[in-house]
UniProtKB/TrEMBL annotation:
Keywords: DNA damage, DNA repair, Endonuclease, Hydrolase, Nuclease. Signal peptide: none annotated. This is T/G mismatch-specific endonuclease. GO terms for biological process: mismatch repair. Coiled coil: none annotated. It holds the Pfam family Vsr. SUPFAM superfamilies: Restriction endonuclease-like. The keyword Repeat does not apply. Belongs to the Vsr family. GO terms for molecular function: endonuclease activity; hydrolase activity. The keyword Metal-binding does not apply. It comes from Pelolinea submarina.
Length: 150
């Protein structure tokens, strides 16, 4: 189907549409943090490369909750059957942007954690996520106490 707007006008229109986040996965992760008494995090912190969904700013840990469709999960393989080339291109750009943001954050001393939407539907995976996160937080807090990181 041909768009009624030219590329420039469509871009302008789309730029006015601000994302509201994937509420169900973000709320699920926030509940997981609260249930496990994990504190010190900010939801949707400002001025951090890539706009993570959650961050432990003092520990420099950025957490992204990636929707399987939008971020190209290879396990779920959700590419629509119609307009496939468009979606592959769009999702490919998102994956490239994610890789770029990961690299930029790591170059600035951040730990980057990416959690797939489908992992929040699996209790064993949720346990692993929490254990891994707790270890990383403790290591970063200890390193900060020794002045190894800012």
């Amino acid at each position: 189907m041909t768009d009624v707007f030219d590329k420039e006008k469509r871009s302008q229109i789309m730029s006015l549409n601000r994302g509201h986040g994937n509420k169900s996965t973000e709320i699920e992760f926030q509940n997981l943090l609260n249930q496990n008494n994990i504190s010190g995090w900010n939801a949707v912190p400002k001025n951090i490369i890539g706009k993570p969904d959650f961050a432990f700013i003092n520990e420099k840990i950025a957490i992204f909750i990636d929707g399987c469709f939008w971020h190209g999960c290879t396990k779920c393989k959700n590419i629509p059957k119609t307009n496939t080339e468009f979606w592959q291109n769009k999702i490919g750009k998102t994956v490239d942007r994610d890789k770029h943001n990961n690299k930029e954050l790591r170059n600035n001393g951040w730990i980057v954690i990416r959690i797939w939407e489908h992992d929040l539907k699996n209790n064993l995976q949720k346990e692993r996520i929490i254990k891994s996160l707790n270890i990383r937080i403790k290591i970063r807090r200890f390193a900060r106490s020794l002045k190894f990181i800012n």
